[in-house]
């Protein structure tokens, strides 16, 4: 099993969710986060005053899938979330040692 952690632009969330559902992803966790990468934030003007926005709003997706499906999920997120502009996000893939469904006690692949 693989844990895929992806950060994407907020306006891409629904499009990415639909694309992942279409390839058979049955669940994901979504968190609103703030962060920065090579953008290092930016400046904005509010009521005539300029101020620095050091952290940019992003969406973090956490998805656990069978190892055989991981490459397809990464490819789907990449192609759907990409705008070609700075700040499109990042994707990390980690190994998952164990999964347990709390309600039924099912483990590993059955818990997904």
UniProtKB/TrEMBL annotation:
Keyword DNA damage recorded: no
InterPro entries: N-reg_PII, N-reg_PII-like_a/b, N-reg_PII/ATP_PRibTrfase_C, N-reg_PII_CS, N-reg_PII_urydylation_site
Bilayer-spanning residue ranges: none
Keyword Glycoprotein belongs to the record: no
Cellular component annotations (GO), alphabetically ordered: cytosol
GO function term, MF aspect, one: enzyme regulator activity
Residues where O-UMP-tyrosine is found: 51
GO BP term (any one): regulation of nitrogen utilization
Superkingdom to which the source organism belongs: Bacteria
Keywords in alphabetical order: Nitrogen fixation, Nucleotide-binding, Phosphoprotein, Transcription, Transcription regulation
Oligomeric form and interacting partners: Homotrimer.
Protein family according to the UniProt entry: Belongs to the P(II) protein family.
Function as written in the Swiss-Prot or TrEMBL entry: P-II indirectly controls the transcription of the glutamine synthetase gene (glnA). P-II prevents NR-II-catalyzed conversion of NR-I to NR-I-phosphate, the transcriptional activator of glnA. When P-II is uridylylated to P-II-UMP, these events are reversed. When the ratio of Gln to 2-ketoglutarate decreases, P-II is uridylylated to P-II-UMP, which causes the deadenylation of glutamine synthetase, so activating the enzyme.
UniProt name for this protein: Nitrogen regulatory protein P-II
């Amino acid at each position: 099993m693989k844990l895929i952690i992806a950060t994407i632009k907020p306006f891409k969330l629904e499009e990415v969710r639909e694309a992942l559902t279409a390839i058979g992803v049955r669940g994901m966790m979504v968190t609103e986060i703030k962060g920065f990468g090579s953008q290092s934030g930016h400046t904005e003007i509010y009521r005539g005053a300029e101020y620095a926005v050091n952290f940019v709003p992003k969406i973090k997706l956490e998805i656990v899938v069978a190892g055989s499906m991981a490459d397809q999920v990464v490819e789907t997120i990449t192609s759907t979330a990409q705008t070609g502009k700075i700040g499109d996000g990042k994707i990390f893939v980690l190994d998952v040692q164990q999964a347990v469904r709390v309600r039924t006690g099912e483990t590993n692949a059955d818990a997904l």
